[in-house]
Structures are given as C-alpha cells and as structure tokens.
Design brief:
The chain has seven helices and nine strands, in the order αβββαααβββαβαββα. With 246 residues, it is α+β, with helices and mostly antiparallel strands. The radius of gyration is 21 Å and the shape is globular.
C-alpha cells in the first residue's frame, strides 16, 4: 500500500479552489475517465459495522437488478452469504448514504488474491432503483478507479452481462476495452501510475465524505432524540387527559 503525502495548508487551498475543475481519475488522466468536484457526491469507504446497511441495500434490489449485479438471479440467502463474505481488510467497499444513513449505492473493488495478478482489481456496483439517473454508478466507478490507482493497481477488470448496458457504457466512457462473448462481456481499463494530484484528490474526498457522514449521523441521532421527546410528551398529555376523566 502506498504511503499518503502530508500536504501543507497551501496544497489544500489550491485543491479547494479547484472545486469545479475536473480531477483526472482514469485511463489517460486527461481524456476519457474524468470526474468533477462540481455536483460532488460523498462516497465513503465502508467497514464491517456497515454490513446490515449493505445487506438491506442489496435485498431491496429488484430481481432484474440482482441478475445484472451478480450475473444470476441471486436469492436473499445468496446475497446474505455474499455480504457475510465481504473482506474489508483486503478489498475496498464504497457506499453512498442518504440522510437517513441508508446505503443507496455501493461498489465493491476486489483486489486479486493471485500474486500473478497482484496489480489487478475487479469492480462491481449496484444502485437503488429510486436513485437511478443521478450518475451514481459512474461516480462510484471513477472513485474506485482513483483509489485503485493510488493503491498501485494497473488494471481494473469488469465482468458483466452483455445486457448490462449501463455498466458497459460507464466502462466505455472511461476508456475501457470491452470484449463481448455471447451473453457476457469483459471490460479492461489500464490505469496510469498515481501522482501527487491523484493522491491529494483521493485524500480530500475521503476526508470530506467522512465529514458528510458524521454530519448525517448527528442529524439522524437528533431526529431520533426529537422523536423520543415527542413520544414522551404525547404520553404525558395522554396520561393527563386520562387522569382528568370522571
């Protein structure tokens, strides 16, 4: 794993001023896979404690979406086994949370366990049906590409059904080579070496996503506390009303 730089305040100021400037993340660091800070979406690395939220997200996928995500009509039991088997120490799992701290989109960047392919990783993504059309899949892919690049990965691999048009479109847009073999397709995206810009961009996105998550967590806890207070007050009012009855 590459060591991360310790940037000076000047670096952060320069990067912040580039909020609406494109950040290179993909194949050619200038053409193809680019992301922009404009309309930024907080993407956070997930941990084992998020398994229940991951499971809930995947179980809400419609049968056709499960088929496209896993390549077969995954049952609830199969999805549960997949979530239980997630290796958070080896792989990276990214998620997008709504204000209720529900996972509405997630990506799995699986690093190769074969030493021969140590610099390769596989990408998979799922997006809740009510969140489609917002570009979350593409944002998650760009984020995974930048993270993989900073971790020394030289190639990202995508195995998808040929009918998964959305995923293959994301791959092609990023500059990946797509090979179709009947009902299945494979996409390969070569990554350039990490540089200071990609490392600082990745670090800043991680910190901002963490801040966004903490703010949502505090707001969620406050809403729960407020609901509890309102229930207590209602209980007191009901008790008073009952006590004053003849």
């Amino acid at each position: 794993m590459n060591s991360k730089p310790n940037p000076s305040p000047g670096f952060w100021q320069q990067l912040w001023r580039r909020w609406v400037s494109p950040v290179a993340t993909g194949a050619s660091a200038g053409a193809g896979a680019k992301s922009s800070w404009h309309g930024w979406i907080p993407i956070r690395s997930l941990a084992p404690r998020h398994r229940p939220r991951i499971l809930k997200h995947l179980l809400t996928l419609k049968p056709e979406d499960r088929y496209l995500r896993f390549g077969y009509p995954a049952t609830d039991e199969q999805i549960a086994r997949y979530v239980d088997g997630l290796n958070f120490e080896r792989d990276e799992i990214f998620g997008v949370f709504n204000r209720r701290l529900e996972v509405v989109a997630m990506a799995h960047l699986a690093f190769s366990v074969d030493p021969q392919w140590a610099t390769c990783a596989e990408f998979g993504v799922s997006v809740a049906s009510h969140q489609r059309g917002k570009g979350l899949g593409a944002r998650l892919f760009n984020h995974a590409v930048m993270h993989a690049r900073n971790e020394g990965v030289s190639m990202i691999f995508i195995h998808a059904l040929s009918e998964n048009v959305a995923m293959l479109k994301i791959a092609r847009h990023a500059g990946a080579t797509v090979q179709r073999d009947g009902s299945e397709s494979e996409a390969f995206l070569s990554l350039p070496e990490a540089n200071l810009d990609s490392q600082l961009s990745g670090l800043m996105q991680e910190q901002m996503a963490e801040l966004d998550y903490q703010l949502k967590m505090q707001a969620h806890q406050f809403r729960e506390w407020l609901t509890t207070v309102q229930e207590i007050r209602q209980g007191v009012r009901d008790a008073r009303h009952t006590s004053h009855k003849p």
